[in-house]
Design goal:
The chain is α+β, with helices and mostly antiparallel strands and about 120 residues long. The chain has one domain: Dynein light chain 2a, cytoplasmic (Beta-Lactamase, 2-Layer Sandwich), CATH 3.30.450.30. The chain contains 3 helices and 5 strands, in the order αββαβββα. A 5-stranded antiparallel beta sheet has the order 2-1-5-4-3, sandwiched between helices. The longest helix is centred in the middle third of the chain and has 21 residues. The mean pLDDT is about 90.
């Protein structure tokens, strides 16, 4: 099994968590590495902007001398986007509906991020 196939399996397993509509593994530079994203979403733009959001949050928090952010959560009336680090090379991003509870999603994202770290 190739690395890309193993990354895709991580996303497939994560997708079994209720309320995850889409997910992606993105390089810290914003390049799409693997995804489970509907065709209606432009995956490359989604990947690039997710990395930009986390990078901006990291810069802001570091400037304030408050450490490194664990995650960035963006909420709108139509959904949520959650981005977390997955080691020094990657990010894990998921989209959920607006009413999604984040407890189980965040726990499973952390587990998936650990698997990604081990693969990259």
């Amino acid at each position: 099994m190739t690395t890309v196939e193993m990354l895709e399996k991580v996303l497939t397993d994560l997708g079994r968590t209720g309320d995850i509509e889409a997910s992606a593994i993105v390089s810290r530079d914003g390049l799409l590495m693997a995804s489970d994203i509907p065709k209606s979403v432009h995956a490359d733009t989604f990947a690039a902007m997710s990395a930009t959001m986390l990078g901006a949050a990291e810069t802001a928090i570091l400037e304030l001398k408050k450490g490194i952010p664990d995650r960035v959560i963006v909420e709108s009336r139509k959904g949520k986007v959650i981005t977390i680090g997955a080691g020094p090379k990657a990010l894990l991003v998921v989209m959920t509906p607006p009413e999604a509870g984040l407890g189980l999603i965040l726990v499973n994202m952390e587990k998936a991020a650990d698997k990604i770290k081990g693969l990259l």
